[in-house]
Amino acid sequence: MRRMAVRCDCCAEDRLARALDRARIPRRYEHCDFENFEVDVYDDDPRAAGWNRSLAEARLLVQAFTRDFGPGTEHGLLLMGPCGVGKTHLAVAALKELVLRGHQGLYYDYRELLKEIQGSYNALSQTSELAVLEPVLNAELLLLDDLGASKPSAWALETLGHILNARYNDKRITLITTNYLDRETRERTPAVLPTGAEVPRTEETLTDRIGQRIRSRLYEMCRTVEILAPDYRREFRRARSVDRV
Questions:
Q1: pLDDT of the residue at 206
Q2: Alpha-carbon 226 to chain mean position
Q3: All domains of the chain in start order, with CATH
Q4: Is residue 76 exposed (0-12), middle (13-18) or buried (19+ Cβ within 10 Å)?
Q5: How far apart, in whole angstroms, are the C-alpha atoms of residue 25 and residue 92?
C-alpha cells in the first residue's frame, strides 16, 4: 500500500507566520484581510450612505489591484483619508495576500523606517544605512504606512525622495497610506461625526508634508484611492461609552 506525506495544518500556519515575519507585518495587523474589512459601518446620519460607499469603493479598488498584480503592474496605490477609516487595514490585506501568493513584500511604518536609518549612523550600531535601505529599495512590493507622519525635515525629505525615485526608476511597486490629504480632497472630507462632534483636522496637506516634487512623483507611481469618511475608531469608542452609561 502506497503512503503519501500530507502537510498538517500546523505546517501551513507556521508557513503563514514565517511569511508575515519576513514581510515585517506587525502582529497588530495580522488579522487584516478583505473579508473582515467592514463597509457598512455608519448610520443615523444623512451622509452615512456616502461614507459607506467610499469604504466599499476603496475595498473594490484595492482588491482589484491585488487580483491583477503581476509582471504587467505599473502603478501602486496611494490610500488617502482621515485617521481611522481603514487605510492600513486595506493595504495590509493586499500585502498579505500577495506575500502568500509568493511575491516578495515588505511593510514599513514611515516613522520607524526613518528612525532605523538614523540609528544606523550611530558609531555603536550593528548595521549600516545600506543594510537598512537595501531591502526597502529592492522589495518587489513595499508598503509604506503613514506617510508624512514624521516632521518634514530636509534630511527626511531627501531620504524619502531617494527611496521613491529609486523604486520608480526600477519599476518596483509601492503601496502608501497617509492621513494627509490633497487640498481639494480635504475640502470634501466630512468635518463632523454622525454624533455631531467635530473631527479635528490639520490644515496641512500632503504636499505640505512631503513637498511638491515628491507629491508629483507619487502621481506617476501610484493610483490615488480616497476614503472620505469620519474616524470610525473614534465613533465606535464614543458609542461604546454611551452604551455603558
A1: 95
A2: 12
A3: 22-244 (3.40.50.300)
A4: buried
A5: 8
- What does the alpha-carbon distance between residue 163 and residue 147 come to, in Å, rounded to a whole number? 13
Q: Which residues partner with 109 through β-bridges?
A: 145
- Helix (H), strand (E) at residue 243: helix 232-244
Per-residue confidence (pLDDT) for residue 129, from 0 to 100? 87
pTM: 0.84
- Nearest CA to 189 among 80, 72, 59, 49? 80
Residues of the chain with pLDDT under 50: 193-200, 236-245
pLDDT of residue 147: 97
Provide the pairing of β-strand 76-80 with 141-145: unpaired
**Residue 188 to residues 64, 149, 198: CA-CA distances in angstroms?**
25, 21, 15
Query: By three-state DSSP, how is residue 145 classified?
Result: strand
